[in-house]
């Protein structure tokens, strides 16, 4: 029997659609035939969330995330998945407000990297994810990684491409080349792997764009959700 996956999405819907696709493909692969995932999704109007992010109203954003998780719990979800890296900034507050587990996006990625014997990794994501401690701090303090982020100018490029292009479904070859150059600079500083720490980056960057392993948090998180759903 499947556990019901509660998805908090819409941040952006472009990557949330990938979660839905990957989760259902994996369930069909695992169970066969016409099988698909049992899941619920609460999808935000991302313009409202982005406005709270850009103006620093994180407390208001936290309350919105808590309400979304509680809606999913009331709807029958057995656990919650936040379909974005950035909004894991309030993951602890969301978990404290519900009575079902929250599957943190950083943990399954970290476990895979540890199994691969990695110790120093590069992190790409929104400016919030690259600059604040809620994500990289978890990788450092809980999982023991040395985490590298791009320099100031490169962080601006990574962030701008996410918000001006990827969350709007725009994929430009010039942006792919810019990301490749940024990845190369992280590798030159010693990064043994690159974490795609924004769920939209997988729309732009593939393994072929990096000389070191790429860890796509969208796919890994979705896979972990399926494993949790089908466990037992």
Automatic annotation (TrEMBL):
GO terms for molecular function: aspartate racemase activity. It holds the Pfam family Asp_Glu_race. Its EC number is 5.1.1.13. InterPro entries: Asp/Glu/hydantoin_racemase (IPR015942), Asp/Glu_race (IPR001920), Asp_race (IPR004380). Keywords: Isomerase. It is an enzyme of class 5 (isomerase). Coiled coil: none annotated. Belongs to the aspartate/glutamate racemases family. This is Aspartate racemase.
């Amino acid at each position: 029997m499947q556990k019901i996956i509660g998805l908090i999405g819409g941040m952006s819907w472009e990557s949330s659609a990938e979660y839905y696709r990957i989760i259902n493909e994996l369930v069909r692969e695992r169970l066969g035939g016409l099988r698909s995932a049992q899941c619920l999704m609460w999808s935000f109007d991302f313009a409202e969330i982005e406005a709270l992010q850009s103006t620093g109203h994180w407390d208001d954003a936290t309350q919105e995330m808590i309400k979304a998780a509680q809606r999913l719990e009331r709807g029958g979800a057995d656990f919650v998945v936040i379909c974005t890296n950035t909004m894991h900034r309030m993951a602890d507050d969301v978990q404290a407000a519900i009575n079902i587990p929250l599957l943190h996006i950083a943990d399954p990625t970290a476990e895979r990297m540890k199994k691969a014997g990695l110790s120093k990794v590069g992190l790409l994501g929104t400016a919030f994810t690259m600059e604040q401690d809620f994500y990289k701090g978890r990788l450092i303090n809980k999982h023991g990684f040395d985490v590298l982020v791009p320099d100031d100018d490169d962080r601006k490029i990574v962030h701008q491409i996410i918000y001006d292009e990827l969350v709007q479904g725009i994929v430009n070859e010039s942006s792919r080349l810019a990301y490749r150059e940024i990845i190369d600079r992280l590798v030159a500083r010693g990064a043994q792997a690159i974490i795609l720490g924004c769920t939209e980056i997988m729309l732009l960057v593939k393994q072929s764009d990096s000389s070191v392993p790429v860890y796509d948090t969208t796919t890994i998180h979705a896979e972990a959700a399926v494993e949790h759903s089908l466990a037992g």
